[in-house]
């Protein structure tokens, strides 16, 4: 008999660790990590109609409009009929959440609640490999060679909108748009909120919660993998 598919979303302000935690969840539980940022970058690189449009917003540090995000992401999710997945970065508005609702039933939503000072420190120290979206932090997970991506060896960059001046506006915007989404998932009884300043301290709670809902991958039960 086929195992029941599991569909989850991870939400949180910029720098809250969605990408970092999603990678751990994907590794431990075998869910496919779907990142809206990665879909956007792929579409921009491929010069699709949606990608060209999205680029004009991202370059100005703006959120991509709902109709572009849904047009881009929902068909991809509809294709994933045989996979369990974890979506990172979508939905981030109520309109996006309603559109997602009409496509699939979510099993669980993780919401990360991280203090502003922590986000500011993390993001001002975040380095990105633009082509892949791989992220580093000089203290938490530094690249093997300073300023260079571990896999490609290409240079890392910092985003202007990760600097404190831009971050205040991004966080205010996140709070405004995320509140109704969080309220929606709360009312459905699928929201789980995690607060803290360190990913390594939050992770065991997320791991325990997911362990009650999805079996961890057999190989990760028997092998030592470098997760706290
Ligand atoms: N110091 C420190 N840095 C962390 C921790 N967890 C994640 N980071 C770093 O913080 C930065 C933000 O983490 P991400 O996983 O990119 O956060 P995100 O929520 O996906 O961010 P967006 O893509 O902007 O929405 C990265 O540079 C991470 O390496 C932590 O516990 N401590
Ligand atoms: N729902 C979303 C998700 C992302 N964006 C834009 O993409 C940029 C990169 O996303 P990351 O998750 O990789 O940081 C982000 O800064 C937004 O401009 C969006 O508009 N809507």
TrEMBL record:
Residues 126-161 form the Adenylate kinase active site lid domain. A ribonucleoside 5'-triphosphate binds at residues 15-20, 126, 135-136, 199. GO terms for biological process: ADP biosynthetic process; AMP metabolic process; ATP metabolic process; GTP metabolic process. It holds the Pfam family ADK_lid. It is found in: Mitochondrion matrix. AMP binds at residues 36, 41, 96, 170. Residues 35-64 are annotated as: NMPbind. Keywords: Acetylation, ATP-binding, GTP-binding, Kinase, Mitochondrion, Nucleotide-binding, Transferase. It is an enzyme of class 2 (transferase). GO terms for molecular function: AMP kinase activity; ATP binding; GTP binding; nucleoside diphosphate kinase activity; nucleoside triphosphate adenylate kinase activity. Residues 125-162 are annotated as: LID. It catalyses: a ribonucleoside 5'-phosphate + ATP = a ribonucleoside 5'-diphosphate + ADP; dADP + GTP = dATP + GDP; dCMP + ATP = dCDP + ADP; CDP + ATP = CTP + ADP. Its EC number is 2.7.4.10, 2.7.4.6. GO terms for cellular component: mitochondrial matrix. It comes from the Eukaryota. InterPro entries: Adenyl_kin_sub, Adenylat/UMP-CMP_kin, Adenylate_kinase_lid-dom, ADK_active_lid_dom_sf, AK3/Ak4_mitochondrial, AK4_mitochondrial, P-loop_NTPase. Consists of three domains, a large central CORE domain and two small peripheral domains, NMPbind and LID, which undergo movements during catalysis. The LID domain closes over the site of phosphoryl transfer upon GTP/ATP binding. Assembling and dissambling the active center during each catalytic cycle provides an effective means to prevent GTP/ATP hydrolysis. PANTHER family: NUCLEOTIDE KINASE. Broad-specificity mitochondrial nucleoside phosphate kinase involved in cellular nucleotide homeostasis by catalyzing nucleoside-phosphate interconversions. Similar to other adenylate kinases, preferentially catalyzes the phosphorylation of the nucleoside monophosphate AMP with ATP as phosphate donor to produce ADP. Phosphorylates only AMP when using GTP as phosphate donor. In vitro, can also catalyze the phosphorylation of CMP, dAMP and dCMP and use GTP as an alternate phosphate donor. Involved in maintaining the homeostasis of cellular nucleotides by catalyzing the interconversion of nucleoside phosphates. Efficiently phosphorylates AMP and dAMP using ATP as phosphate donor, but phosphorylates only AMP when using GTP as phosphate donor. Also displays broad nucleoside diphosphate kinase activity. Monomer. Belongs to the adenylate kinase family. AK3 subfamily. This is Adenylate kinase 4, mitochondrial. It comes from Coregonus suidteri.
